Amino acid sequence: MTxxxxxxxxxxxxxxxGEDIKKAYRKQAMQYHPDRNPDDxxxxxxxxxxxxxxxxxxxENKRAAYDRFGHAGVSNNGAQDFGGGxxxxxxxxxxxxxxxxxxxxxxxxRGSRAYAGADLKYNLxxxxxxxVKGTETELQIxxxxxxSECNGSGSEPGHNPxxxxxxxxxxxxxxxxxxxxxxxxxPVCRGAGKMITHPCKSCKGNGIITRNxxxxxxxxxxxxxxxxxxxxxxxxxxxxxxxPGDLYVVIHVEEHSEFxxxxxxxxxxxxxxxxxxxxxxxxxVPTLDGxxxxxxxxxxxxxxxFKMKGLGVPYxxxxxxxxxxxxxxxxxxxxxxxxxxxxxxxxxxxxxxKPKSKMKNFFKKAMGES
Length: 370
Prior knowledge:
This protein is of the alpha+beta class. Among the domains are: 6-81, DnaJ domain (Helix Hairpins, Orthogonal Bundle), CATH 1.10.287.110; 115-156 and 204-255, Sandwich (HSP40/DNAj peptide-binding domain); 260-334, HSP40/DNAj peptide-binding domain. Helices cover 26% and strands 25% of the residues. It has ten helices and 15 strands. The chain has helices at residues 6-10, 18-32, 41-57, 60-69, 89-92, 94-100, 128-133, 274-279, 338-349, 355-367; strands at 120-126, 135-146, 162-163, 172-177, 180-185, 194-195, 208-219, 228-231, 247-253, 260-262, 265-273, 281-285, 292-296, 305-308, 324-331. Helix 2 (18-32) packs antiparallel against helix 3 (41-57). The radius of gyration is 38 Å and the shape is elongated.
């Protein structure tokens, strides 16, 4: 059977770097590994082919021979040599399979591997004003911490964990599958390689306990609903010396009775009477920092908007601010007394041209009437 080109199998060019070859193999191995495709002989065969391609192309001497002579140049150096020299394919590529599948070689277990702690999420509700101006608050976060009684070992003081007899301290057990040696986590010690025979009374052998930790959080001015703040190192603790995770604070902003937000701008509606709108006036406008004065011009119309610069929402970590958009709502007078009605009727009689007359003239012109 004609062998496939190694570069084509991995989906790379002949100028690919060593790192490119490794990345391409990781991708193919993830997809076609037998454990991920049980009872699929085609996937298993393809996995063997890409493994052989990687074994050749990742070695400078074998790659040079392959580039010059093709498969004939590496006929005695391919993947078929695994198994005869005391090490299996997972021993040869433990750096790759250890990262992808959690498999390791028989030379040692993975029980001592460090693991980063999990990230935590906290939903925080704040007021509209706090979101605009920023604030500082203290959170009570339930966190897992290393047990101080056993220093995280899980064993009662004076006792030490014992080597797992099931896996011999490797943290893994191995099964043969063809010329492959498949590793899986030891079901007895769960990969730790050791067994706790005298569990700590304080943490019950877990090595960690849950406590409420007080975390100070500074919320910058300008955050919006759904903003996410990252507090580095305040997540769950790492295992076996690994780094802790992070705390993510998700902001939920309460609505305001007067203001709405549009990006970095604030919007507020201000009521004026008919006379103020017609003649213009100096009106009082509410802001988040207290009332401000604003001039509205003559003949202001209902729904017309005006801009008050720099009275909006700050841009995060900046001195720049958005604007306050003031929308004018002209109120129609109600509960008129007799004198007010007389004045309005007199005003209507002195209009140069009533709106109704304008419409009437429009239809006359449209019909061709003089």
